[in-house]
Design brief:
globular, binds guanosine-5'-diphosphate, binds zinc ion, 5-stranded mixed barrel, about 300 residues
């Protein structure tokens, strides 16, 4: 008689994955064509005849899906059911203009809360580096005021990673950012037993070793979970629709229905409520300018 149990997918391969059942045990589970392939983070129901392996019989509806763009710009699901996305930037490599805005809008469009992590923050004390770091670094107060959490971290010096650990506590999160900003260094700091967890996953699959290049859900020592997905967003993100772009600037939202034209792009149109709000100082001019640059890039 097979036993039915519920659990969460820790790692998903082509035809099977590792599920952690609600009793704490992990099980290597096969997928069935009829049910489909779950992703890292999905809640599933599995049938198992023994304690060694099982079959995924049902995938619960997801709350949100974190995606990456492939070379054709198509969206591929990386993980599901996230509480927040930690967008990591660093003074070097400095983000390109509007990179942070683009990331913020993309996360917002997925229905997930973004958090800004400023790594290598000790380098900002060096005047030369701070001057070359780019505009994003002079706007932290504005980001906070707009409701985006901002934490400063360093893997090499003060202030360390304590503030990040606090924000990760009790939540399911993923770290994203361009190559070289320190994502793997941060993961190593917040998951000291990552290797042990990786070994346990290899044991559960029973064949070969689990490689850290596969998107994997890890348990944080103090509670909460961190999804590690190497390379995620290093090569940019998908194209956002104009309307998604405007909706991704939370301070625009209250004005969006008030423009003369219902399809206003808030650029050259007359009687635009967003532009009026900028003129009245209700929206930061630098945020609006960033929006317009992203809009123009969209049209290309
Ligand atoms: P990833 O590509 O985002 O995963 O970045 P890595 O974790 O591989 O880090 C890239 C480089 O930045 C490495 O040489 C790290 O040692 C260095 N690095 C990471 N965090 C910090 C930091 O807080 N301060 C400084 N100065 N260097 C760091
Ligand atoms: Zn408008």
């Amino acid at each position: 008689m097979p036993v039915e149990s519920a659990g969460r997918v820790l790692v998903s391969y082509g035809g099977h994955g590792i599920v952690r059942l609600d009793d704490g045990s992990t099980l290597n589970c096969k997928y069935r064509r009829k049910v489909g392939r779950p992703f890292c983070g999905d809640r599933v129901v599995v049938h198992s005849a023994d304690r060694e392996s099982g079959v995924v019989e049902h995938i619960e509806p997801w709350r949100n899906r974190f995606v990456r763009a492939d070379q054709q710009g198509r969206q591929n699901v990386v993980a599901t059911n996230l509480d927040q996305v930690m967008i990591v930037i660093a003074p070097c490599p400095a983000p390109s203009t509007d990179l942070l805005e683009r990331y913020l809008v993309a996360v917002q469009s997925l229905g997930i809360a973004p958090v800004i992590v400023v790594n290598k923050s000790e380098l900002l004390q060096q005047e030369k580096i701070a001057a070359q770091a780019g505009p994003a670094f002079s706007h932290f107060e504005d980001y906070l005021e707009l409701g985006y959490p901002v934490v400063r971290t360093s893997c090499k010096a003060e202030p360390g990673v304590g503030a990040l650990i606090e924000l990760l506590h009790g939540k399911r999160s993923i770290l994203v950012g361009q190559s070289g900003v320190g994502k793997s260094s941060l993961v190593n700091r917040v998951l000291p037993d990552m290797q042990l967890q990786t070994n346990a996953l290899s044991e559960a699959t029973g064949k070969g070793t689990h490689t850290t290049t596969t998107t994997t859900l890890y348990d944080l020592p103090a509670g909460g979970q961190l999804i590690d997905s190497p390379g995620v967003w290093e090569f940019g993100i998908w194209k956002l629709e104009d309307a998604e772009l405007a909706a991704g600037f939370p301070e625009f939202v209250q004005f969006l229905g008030q423009c003369r034209f219902h399809n206003c792009r808030h650029h050259t149109e007359p009687a635009c409520a967003v532009k009026t709000a900028v003129e009245e100082g209700l929206i930061h001019a630098w945020r609006y300018e960033s929006y317009v640059r992203l809009l123009i890039q969209n049209a290309k």
